[in-house]
Design brief:
- The chain is an all-alpha fold.
- The model has no long low-confidence stretch (mean pLDDT 82).
């Protein structure tokens, strides 16, 4: 298992390095003239050149990347060109908001999807058709429409939850729960629809295996067979999809954070990307890549633990 994890960490480090270089090169292609944007159109060209030189933009792109990489390795992600805010601090203050959403959605998706998938896979018949219909409807509904309906019904009309804003958990656990409930619900619907279908299909496939019929012939109860043997072997594909859903939530968080006025990574991405703030954009790209690597590593470890044969195949 240690060799298995070491291989994954090594591959993740290489991926991180390659994507950071490609991202920096792509971001440096447009001629944005940052100095002019900062000082204004009426600023003298000499002042603009001096500003670009102070930011290091007069140097070759690879030299700029090398400076950024050496700082990133030490934990120094630089300073925002436009707000002069420390990038590491800016990301750290917004990360808990997005993590609250992503972890909440993942928890809801895992619990509800496994319950629905196992229920449909074991009971079949009308229950199975009902769960499949729910899955299709949940996946087909546009995310922005679901979000708007939740806000209009539960925030505006019923006034059960706040329509916008965020309360940190450290200030008020109850207020934090109220502010993340609707965003988590809006992101969970499509996730549950996708993962529950994977669980259902995997459970049905495992129930058809010969060893399950042998366990039934030995007199084991259906509940014990499902939760001790079937679910363990059916979890691998569902965990893979759940991991991809977690990574994909970064894209969904952009829309949800904008609608609910949440000061998270999604809204930060929109704000700084439109201005071409490379230090901030690079930090967000690296945060995304690190998240992808860690989630894939966690999924691979869990699958390897559930099925030791997967350690050799992965």
């Amino acid at each position: 298992m240690l060799n298995f994890i070491a291989r994954r960490i090594g591959a993740g480090a290489v991926l991180l390095l390659v994507i950071s270089l490609l991202s920096y090169l792509l971001l440096s292609i447009p001629d944005m003239d940052v100095g002019r944007q900062l000082l204004g159109q009426s600023a003298p060209q000499s002042d603009v050149d001096a500003k670009n030189a102070a930011l290091g933009l007069d140097r070759p792109v690879l030299a700029q990347y090398a400076d950024w990489l050496s700082g990133a390795v030490r934990g120094d992600l630089g300073t925002s060109w436009f707000s002069s805010e420390d990038v590491t601090l800016a990301v750290a203050t917004r990360l808990p908001v997005t993590l609250s959403l992503m972890l909440g959605v993942t928890l809801v998706t895992a619990v509800v999807s496994f319950l629905l998938g196992v229920w449909a896979g074991v009971r079949r018949g009308a229950v199975d058709r009902f769960v499949q219909v729910l899955g299709v409807v949940g996946y087909a509904l546009p995310g922005f429409l679901v979000t708007l309906v939740l806000v209009l019904v539960f925030a505006v009309r019923l006034n059960w939850f706040p329509a916008i804003g965020y309360t940190p958990f450290t200030e008020s656990p109850g207020g934090w729960l109220a502010t993340v409930t609707l965003p988590v619900a809006s992101l969970s619907i499509a996730s549950v629809a996708g993962v529950s279908q994977q669980v259902r299909g995997a459970v049905i496939d495992v129930l058809r295996q010969d060893y399950v019929r042998t366990l039934r012939a030995r007199g084991l109860s259906g509940t014990r067979i499902v939760f001790k043997h079937v679910l363990r072997n059916a979890s691998a594909p569902a965990l893979s999809v759940l991991g991809m859903q977690f990574v994909g939530l970064l894209g969904g968080a952009v829309l949800v954070e904008q609608i609910f006025g949440l000061p998270g990574i999604g809204s930060m991405t929109v704000s700084y990307t439109t201005r071409g703030d490379i230090p901030v954009i690079m930090a967000l790209v690296m945060l995304t890549v690190v998240g992808v690597v860690l989630i894939n590593l966690l999924v691979d470890v869990l699958i390897g633990w559930l099925n030791p044969k997967a350690r050799l195949a992965r």
